[in-house]
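Chapter review: from sequence to fold.
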Amino acid sequence: MEIALFPRPHQLPAAVADFVGREELLQSVVDRIIPFPQVVLLTGPVGTGKTTLAVQAAHRVANGHFPDGQLFVRLRGTTPHEVLGRFLTAFGLPAPGDFAARLSAYRDAVVRQSLLLVLDDVTCVDQVKPLLPHAPGCAVLVTSRHALKLPHVVEVGPLEPAQAMMLLGNQIGPDRLAAESAPAEALVAASDCSPLTVRIAGAVLAARPHWPLALLAERLRDPRGRLETLSHGGLSVRARLEETAGDLSPHARRLLGLLAGVGARRLPSWAPVAAFGDVRGQSAVDELVSAHLVSAGEHGYAVPELVREFAAGQSDAGEALRRVLGGWLYLLDQARAAVYGGDFSVVRGCSAREVVRPDRLLRTDPREWLESEHESLCDAVELAAGAGLDEPAWELAHRLVTLFETRTGFEGWQHTHDIALAACEKAGNRRGAAVLHCSLASLHISQSRYDLAHEMTLRAKDFFEDHDDPAGLGLVYRNLGIVARSSGEFAAARRWYQHALAVYERFTDPVGQASVLQHLAQIDLYDGDTAGAGERLSAALAACDGTGPARVLAQINYRLGKLLAVDGRHDEASGVLTTALDLTRTARDRRGESFVLYALGRNEFVRCRLDQARALLHEAALLCEANFDVVGAARARLELSRVHRARGEVQVAAELEAAARAVYSEFGLKPVPGDVIFQP
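The token string follows.
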């Protein structure tokens, strides 16, 4: 039989009339079809318009390059046996009952034809293989929600915002779009620029011309019930997601529910295994990524909001969240121990730790790891509190102070602690609340808000004393010492510091001891006891064994430099303070760096090196401002006014002094030698 006698099927669906944009992507598909024989896969998440794009590309090349016809079939819910029968019927040929006979007849029919096949909504490669024509004049376009192993792959993602706006305008009319442009932009953003979501939103609005666009945009921003909103006529996001989930293995379906229950915007690379409970979580998440239900990035995974809403509700999701939070706590313990040389100056709770594998960055640079995971760690506090897991919530928040105190992350410090504190108070967790009150007191000290610091510390003091909790008492007594010192009550400050030192000695906490010894040395300096201050600082070095954490060593050298300056040994002081400056930068301790810069500037001023003093004090003031430390900036500018006065720049000096004293007055402080102390 001659091939020319075969009917020429033209089965392509009509191209959509409102296809918008994507010209570059469309051309890339066309360019991959033309040098046939080719098999091109269009893959991407639910609703990104893969079929629409495939049909559009097929129409563009159909008549000019594939004169013998175009075949189109949706493979979901069918078998290769059924599809081969349809294709043979389209060629006017009988369809044998035997699969092998059908396959042989199909291959004979297409061997000399120029055909374009569009295989839509493929669920696995096994559906495709028997249908490939293996003929020089044929090409195949495959669409799938799964990342199949096929020769040429085109990733299809969401529309650009301008394209999504154009598509919405096609649905509701350009006049309505222009009249409500701001709500339209919000609606498109809430739709994640997904063509399916925008089409459904447009259809809903077209059917309800009396609805303001803002009403639907607000409904789409609400994480509860978005999927019900995104359903109109035969279009439904939920239905598409149900189909895709039906393709998954039982393990992958279970993990999807667990990850949805965790609720995190971003999941670290170890989270799927932790959530699942064993290593099967890794193969399961690979399957979810292949199905475009979970996205994978350089540092982990993300579950889109609509997928989270769809998959949420699995019964053991709470335990999965506990395990993920336990993984974060385990890694935070590792990071803090690396920064401080051990689990020092921190109160430990009873939350379970989940042993997970630290990534390379945590092993090599724990401070940089803390910075890189800052957003996810803060989210973890919110997730814990939102799930009523008060114990992990306060432990996570408390350990995050390691990050907040060096980067002056005051907003994150306050936010995480407020959330965790509310969870503890709701659960009646008095110990967790006491720890957070004490930690908030440290925040207020960093901001020179000593009245608030005193109030918060007293809230924690009774609990820790009643329960003889040494880790908490050390923090309480140290904070009370700092508050007393800030108001010039040096005798009271000394008593509190000595109480704290006794606790840390009993608790065998060398970092805590070193911290308190430094504060006692500062009191010795205020009292004019330079010998006593020197002994304290030597003892602090001994407590750290001379090789403690960079931040603690920086603080010791800072005070040693001040001691040398008080003794009039300004050249030696400059060298020690320079060492302290290097250590603060190694520790990425921006607050500590500002204090050392200030001390160096003062020392250079005494050495009559006015240009160097001006530069150092100016840098200290700018750094304080970047750290939101208005008192520190005022202190630096007060000293800077003295430098300008010595240079004969009286007007500049007067302005700097007036501004600085206004800040001191606002905070109820008075300038004293040494001023504010930075603490661990």
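Two observations follow directly from the output. Residues 317-340 form the longest helix (24 residues). The radius of gyration is 34 Å.
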